[in-house]
């Protein structure tokens, strides 16, 4: 088994972005909206704000009361859309129950050009038909790993376990467009994983996937996350893979850090689009004086 | 082999819509934009306008010069968006070459609530995340056939050959959400079709799929269209299926008519949303006088 180190890849991506941003004089500003004080959400937000700082950017954290109403939240989003200094907007999910009902409306309200999560339905749709401004970071992270491992080749057989809007469906579309054969399965089946060159497992029980049911030479991306026996783990039983000839992106230290690094890439793209034309306009303005 | 008669199913759907529209006092108005005079496009437009009339609706055909420019076409679409009497808007594809470049922009310009083709990226995206106002008719037609044939069951194995934005990708998402296992393959492979309970073949050579490579008891949907030896045919070699125990939606007389019937369903939904609130508002208005 060869373990792919997601933390190392994430550090490499962050370092490259930091240098690019510095070279081009860009300091991306990410606005993060957090509603309520769900502890898990705050942990994820902390990871994102640290990554923004590590790539030379700045954060604007909007921590809103859990009982904020629909209209007020929509107004907060609209204010950030209008604010030219904000490059990217991220609405931390999940929302409190009374707002979760309107989730699609909030995601749709985020300007597609600032939608660094790629969750605005217009960006999702342009993935099927056209070119999205931004693509979901979980799907981008898997694509990056697959490309680095040199598995992004026409004819390869990818099997994706799950049905999520942020990973499985966009990843399936991206892989199909690269000429791969793509199977999506809502629940894990041992039989289906045997023929996979690339296996992505987002749904399932802790450490459910065992080495015996994987193909020789395959790439396995563990996209699960569980607390089990006091430790974090994924859907793949690492120990059962040790003696097998295959590549594993494990949990922890796998998809999570790469996902946040891809968010930083999206943010840098947004900042480049948003800041460069302005500064160029500025210099044209000066010349014409 | 049991042949599924798409023309009969389409006639049944049309008849039902006609009765519903009559009962509810709705006469749907479809605006069709055709740019240029491509003969094949005009044939399809003719089929659509006839279907609108057969379901108690009316057509407004905008036949535009092939050399119309981008801004003028966008303005035509915007006029139809604003026109309250128009229930559905359809932009006949393909467009002339100088406009095809901006296709996504035109599709995005159509009000999602009038987008009866389901091609606006917002509707596409809400298919992944949320609820679309309208879904592509080709995908809806396949879902209807699969449901009628009683193959829409969790655990069934669907294999889709192709990568189109209007059929393969939306159909894959719809089937996954119903709990099926879904494989998308950009090009036909005999080996992959053998395990399919449901096989949809959109891409390939005329009459390429032969009975020997199909599973006993499977449902085969031919979504190809070719002119071959002076006759229309699909991707499936019908003759080679005759002795096999399976279901075939053939070409001709299969997906084509059902697709147009599903367009009429979308149009009736649009008309119901657009006309009923207006007439209800009207009656509330009268009472309050």
CATH class category name of the largest domain in chain A: Alpha Beta
Strand proportion of chain A, as a percent range, falls in 15-25%
Unreliable residue runs of chain A: 281-289
Oligomer, anyone? homodimer
Largest sheet of chain A: 6 strands, parallel
* Protein chain pair with the most extensive contact, residues per chain: A-B, 37 and 37 residues
Termini distance of chain A?
A: 64 Å
CA radius of gyration of chain A: 20 Å
**SSE pattern of chain A, N- to C-terminal:** EHEHEHEHHHHEHEHEEEEEH
| Class by SSE composition of chain A | alpha/beta
Give the mean pLDDT of chain A.
Answer: 94
Q: For the largest sheet of chain A, list the strands in their spatial order.
A: 1-11-8-7-5-6
Total strand segments of chain A: 11
**What is the number of helices of chain A?**
10
| Count of individual domains of chain A | 2
From the spread of the alpha carbons, the general shape of chain A counts as globular
What would you note in describing this structure?
- The structure is a homodimer of 289-residue chains.
- By secondary structure, the first copy, chain A, is of the alpha/beta class.
- Chain A folds into 2 domains: 24-111, Rossmann fold (3-Layer(aba) Sandwich), CATH 3.40.50; 137-256, NAD(P)-binding Rossmann-like Domain (Rossmann fold), CATH 3.40.50.720.
- Chain A is 44% helix and 16% strand.
- The first copy, chain A, has 10 helices and 11 strands.
- In chain A, the strands form 3 sheets. A 6-stranded parallel beta sheet of chain A has the order 1-11-8-7-5-6, covered by helices on one side.
- In chain A, a hairpin with a 2-residue loop joins strand 9 and strand 10.
- In chain A, helix 2 packs across helix 10.
- Chain A is globular.
- The termini of chain A are far apart.
- At the A-B interface, helix 5, helix 6, helix 8 and strand 6 of A face helix 5, helix 6, helix 8 and strand 6 of B.
- Strand 6 (181-185) of chain A pairs antiparallel with strand 6 (181-185) of chain B, so a sheet runs across the interface.
């Amino acid at each position: 088994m060869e373990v792919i180190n997601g933390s190392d890849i994430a550090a490499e991506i962050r370092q490259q972005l930091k240098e690019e941003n510095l070279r081009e004089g860009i300091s991306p500003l990410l606005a993060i909206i957090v509603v309520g004080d769900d502890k898990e959400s705050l942990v994820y937000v902390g990871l994102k704000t640290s990554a923004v700082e590590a790539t030379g950017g700045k954060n604007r954290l909007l921590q809103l009361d859990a009982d904020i109403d629909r209209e007020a939240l929509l107004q907060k989003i609209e204010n950030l859309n209008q604010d030219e200094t904000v490059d990217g907007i991220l609405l931390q999910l999940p929302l409190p129950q009374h707002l979760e009902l309107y989730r699609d409306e909030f995601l749709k309200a985020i300007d597609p050009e600032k939608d660094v999560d790629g969750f605005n339905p217009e960006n999702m749709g342009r993935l099927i038909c056209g070119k999205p401004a931004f693509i979901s970071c979980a799907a981008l992270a898997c694509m990056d790993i697959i490309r680095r491992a040199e598995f992004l080749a026409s004819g390869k057989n990818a099997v994706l376990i799950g049905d999520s809007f942020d990973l499985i469906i966009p990843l399936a579309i991206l892989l199909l467009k690269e000429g791969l054969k793509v199977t999506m399965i809502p629940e894990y089946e041992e039989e289906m994983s045997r023929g996979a060159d690339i296996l992505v497992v987002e749904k399932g029980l802790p450490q459910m996937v065992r080495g015996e049911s994987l193909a020789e030479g395959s790439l396995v991306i563990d996209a699960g996350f569980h607390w089990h026996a006091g430790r974090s783990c994924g859907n793949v039983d690492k120990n059962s893979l040790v003696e097998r000839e295959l590549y594993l992106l494990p949990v922890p230290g796998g998809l999570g850090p790469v996902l946040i690094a891809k968010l930083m890439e999206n943010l840098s793209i947004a900042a480049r689009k948003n800041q460069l034309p302005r500064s160029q306009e500025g210099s044209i303005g000066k010349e014409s004086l």
